[in-house]
């Protein structure tokens, strides 16, 4: 367990010129062969060793009826305290219902994600946390995940078609059991809107007029941060969904539409219109500070996920927080789409105790299990049909309605596209935020296109 | 630091000559011991340094995501699946031409430029600053140990802590600098770490803050080893302290100066940690460095290992230049003795 964090820290603390190269190299040589197994085993940690004795006996017991018995190990990237506790509650409940003992192997979420391909190719746990979207399909298509169609035969009725589509690979088989998602919407403080007499905007013109009004009232209209890289991708996503629609967005993410297309230009034209109302200095601000500006009522609105804004609000102010879906821009699409990233659980092909793991997945794919998970979570919402967990607060109840009202939800640029493409866009969008001119936009688009060509080749 | 003391200690040339003569008098058992003592480090060096380095060079001619093996087929004939990367294949020099092409890899040339700028700032600002600290502290001013500890502290702090410290200083709305100079309003704030024209300088200030302390300690060790009789003699001959330092002490410090020059070059080529911690691992425009580019391509969910290796090879080649010069100098000097 000692060196669970791989290359990045190695590179920083190694000695000599070689460290940058070698930090990477040691990782690569790990992947290449014998080393690969040990490296992934480090990730899989103690749990997989512990249960290897019991796995063989359990796999014979089959999944008929309620109690399956046996034990599985569960790789988790829920490394922050709150989700970690919620996840523990979920697996404890799963053990109570299925009789399968679950040992959790928690790994820091960045480390988990960075190592995922070595992890899946080495000795992974029986189940692991993951994300819906292209990020799932990418690994499923390379044969690293186990199809779980038989699980879905049982849990299918609990979910809508939209959720089912999120859980499938490109081959049409199921690979994920989702647990929750959360909406990307415009947050505001009810008290601020009430005291200034602001109205919730539903169109672009109303939205910009409101922003202008806030500015003259001495508020920062839209709190905004981009130091973390990904938050501004959300703004790109929603503008693209509003202006060009869901299908166009999906095709663009998979580079079936070129980045030089005039639809993309339109997105940045609208963004330029919005630029004067966005909080300045976003490239150097972490999103927590932007959320703080909203909470302190220095800012009027903020567009980001409830998983971040609501989670960052102190309990005392949470009752004042409210949101509305991003205003409509193109009448054709209205407010039909939004980013609502879903997280869930997948089954590595190399997992050992598959029957017990499937029994656990069958339990997780119920509204009851989702309610258990969400008992301590005040910002995400379950994805089971019509689920209103008893612990939901006003934001969560409204989130369910807002996501339900969508004709389609996308995941997020770094989940709908190749992560490399998202990284390229982060850099380009940072350049745009620094200098939002038409010149920047056209060079941004041609650069995005030439990078996309190599990334998708 | 250990290298400085050995540098200083190895100066007497007589011991060297004696040792060389004694090699011929080794017994069989001595030879085994020598072979073992040399062989084990050599083997470790081969396994952990040269083998991976060679693997990097080979991988730089491939295209590989890290999933599955690498087929010894050309990528042009390997075929593709829609929306998915090709299985590992031989890519020829394509990675190199992509790296040098600024349309496809817009970050490459800025990264090279930033590494050079890093080196320049270290040589022109950080090193002289550390030298100044060392000379002042060496004069035995009161509380010099306290100053020494304070100035060396940045070198010892963990990266996570450094990240937090500078985040508190540079943060746009709540940061120390902007609050003190009153530039923390939305209308006039200065975006130290986000503005692509400012952030490299902001990070270089952090790096200098750390490097100066490092150089200071190296110089202090060197200065302590300078024979005080030299300084006294210079004083008696009527030299002022400026002349004493530059004409007498500085030339005596030559071995230390070489070490510091090498350390400076190496530190600026492997500059990575502060930038990485500033972005929290995310890409930041204006803070491109070769080491960061390597990491971005190789560490992550979907890896472009072939391309990352190519960047690694470029960094390796650049690093070999100062290393070769240094080693050449060292060996030549030892032969002369």
List the SSEs and their pairings:
The complex is a heterodimer of chains A (457) and B (337).
Chain A: H1 7-13, H2 19-32, H3 34-59, E1 71-76, H4 81-98, E2 101-106, H5 109-114, H6 116-121, E3 127-131, H7 134-141, H8 149-155, H9 161-166, E4 176-181, E5 184-189, H10 190-196, H11 204-216, E6 220-223, H12 231-244, H13 246-253, H14 262-274, H15 287-295, E7 299-305, H16 306-312, H17 315-318, E8 321-324, E9 337-339, E10 342-346, H18 354-364, H19 367-374, E11 381-382, H20 394-404, E12 408-410, H21 413-416, H22 419-434, H23 438-455
Chain B: H1 2-9, H2 14-23, H3 28-59, E1 62-63, E2 70-74, H4 75-78, E3 88-90, H5 94-100, H6 108-138, H7 144-156, H8 159-170, H9 176-180, H10 199-225, H11 228-236, H12 241-252, H13 254-269, H14 273-279, H15 290-298, H16 305-336
Parallel strand pairs in B: 2-3
Antiparallel strand pairs in B: 1-3
Helix pairs in contact in B: 3-16, 6-7, 6-10, 6-13, 7-10, 8-14, 10-13, 11-12, 13-16, 15-16
Describe the structure.
The complex is a heterodimer of chains A (457) and B (337). Chain A is of the alpha/beta class. Chain A is built from 23 helices and twelve strands. A six-stranded mixed β-sheet of chain A has the order 2-1-3-10-4-11. In chain A, α4 links the parallel β1 and β2. In chain A, α2 packs across α3, α12 packs across α13 and α22 packs antiparallel against α23. Chain A is globular. The two termini of chain A are 38 Å apart. The longest helix of chain B is centred in the first third of the chain and has 32 residues. Chain B has a three-stranded mixed β-sheet. In chain B, α6 runs parallel beside α10. Chain B contains 16 helices and three strands. Chain B starts with a helix and ends with a helix. Chain B is flat, with a radius of gyration of 25 Å.
